[in-house]
Amino acid sequence: MEHTWNSVKRIFWTGLVIAAAVLLLHRSDVEPGDLTNRLHGFTRDVEFDYGKWGLNALGIKSLQVASGTVDYLPQETQKQLVLDYLDLVRQIYQTEAVLEDIYADPNIEDPEGMSVETRQTLAALYDLRDQLAPLAEAVLQNQITAVAADLELTLGGQSLPPVFYHVTPLPLALIVSPRDAIRQDADISLIPDLTVADRASLEEQVDQNLDVSSLVVNIGGVGMYPTMVMQTTNINWLAEVVAHEWIHNVLTLRPLGASYLQSPELRTMNETTASIAGKEIGAALIERFYPEFVPPPPPPTDDSQDAPEPTQPPSPPAFDFRAEMHETRVNVDEMLEAGRVEEAEDYMEARRQFFWENGYHIRKLNQAYFAFHGAYADQPGGAAGAADPVGPAVRALRAQSDSLVSFINRISWMWSFDQLQEAVEGPESMSS
Fold first, then answer.
1. Quick one: which of 97, 157, 316, 375 could link to 268 by a disulfide (CB 3.0–4.6 Å)?
2. CA 157 centroid distance within chain
3. How far, in Å, CA of 187 to CA of 172, rounded?
């Protein structure tokens, strides 16, 4: 009887998955406009096909739901499946690096012959990954759902929409901003295998012909349905990103997510909400299912007045990327507001070199860079502007909410930044 009931539930959720996909696939679309239409002239041949990818991924996920293979495995076995998959990905990365070295070594005259065994090993690892990945994904989906239930983010223990993600090479994103302001005016998804030279060439064509600032960026996930997640060996990062993208799916069924493309403020509200929730859900998942991977607490600070004088001269302060990037953004905003566009662009290039010298290898630092990264404002500083009130307001609302579910339920039913401003308790609660 129990098996019959489980089969009925799986059939029901398979149908729900298909229905939810129809509602959520629009998240990958870019709002039509004159700029976007002009950009297609440069990107049409290298744009990512979400429809093809979505149908394939949806088929995989529907089979997962129908079979329910991992549901009958002990919890410890499920956990080991995930860890084995991550270790397999680590082996793939190592073997790929060996293969690259063989072809890069000037002392090897016949790299193809020398790499036969390595390529055979890699092919076998790829085949094993294809077999193991769907099982590991199903386990993590169930674990996210269980944690979401603990946090009262589900209905009767079932997440709505169901948690479904698929590890895949992610599309790149062409971000376009005007030169005289930091604002994301376009976001076009591109095929994932564009070389660095291809990216730079596309950016140059777009910038010169349209007089804009553009940047092709890597992304960690896409909130379509099933969600797209980048391959990784890091269980902490994976848990956070899967949760982040699922929250986007949740928001899409409510006014906040449906209004994602309506304004820069609403985009920042969406991304910051998903970042906050993704971190909390991901941390809860690690604590419950993978406690050995809980990050260690920060080292304690000794504020004692009786602390002895140091015998060695103090070390120079560590390079603070977020603080330095925030300072850069503030100065750029001031220059652009004053109409000093070329000065701002020269300054950003000088700062890019400064970051490079301090170990942060940023290929291009421009208006499009800030337009993209500035929307993720779950922490103070970074690429968000000083005058941008959205991130602090979202963080203030989370601080005012007694639980994550209360926070999500409040902000997800908003469709304007004005509503968020009204919800927080005055200017003092919006401080970062």
1. 375
2. 26
3. 10
Could you tell me how far CA 322 lies from the centroid of its own chain?
18
Distance of CA 306 to the CA centre of its chain: 45
Cα–Cα distance for residue pair 336/330, rounded to 1 Å: 10
The edge-to-edge listing of strands for the beta sheet with 221-222 is: 165-167, 227-229, 221-222
How many of the other CB atoms lie within 10 Å of CB of 294?
Answer: 11
| Closest among 405, 431, 432, 410 to 422, alpha carbons compared | 410
Collapsed DSSP state (helix, strand, coil) of residue 190: strand
Residue 389 predicted with pLDDT over 60: yes
For residue 81, give every residue at least 6 positions away whose Cβ sits within 8 Å of its Cβ, in sequence order, or none.
70, 73, 132, 135, 136, 139
Q: How far apart are CA 253 and CA 408, in angstroms?
A: 12
CA distance 246 to 224: 9
Write down the pTM of the prediction.
0.78
Contacting residues for 431 by C-beta, under 8 A, at least 6 apart: 392, 396
pLDDT bin (cut points 50, 70, 90) of residue 432 is: very low
Name the token pair of 262: 């309506």
Please give the distance of CA 21 from its chain centroid, rounded to a whole number.
Answer: 20
CA dist 140 and 161 (Å) reads 15
Q: Which pair of tokens denotes residue 386? A: 């000083």
Mean pLDDT of 25-34: 50
Residues 289, 243: contact at Cβ < 8 Å? no
The SS3 of residue 267 is helix
d(CA 308, CA 330): 39
Over the stretch 66-81, which tens digit does the pLDDT of each residue have?
666 788 889 999 999 9
Query: What is the SS3 assignment for 171?
Result: coil
Best CA proximity match to 84, nearest among 129, 118, 147, 45: 129
Whether 227 and 257 have beta carbons less than 8 Å apart is answered as no
Q: Where are the domains positioned within the chain?
A: 2-30+50-166
Residue 227's region, left for phi above 0, alpha for psi from -120 to 50, else beta, is beta
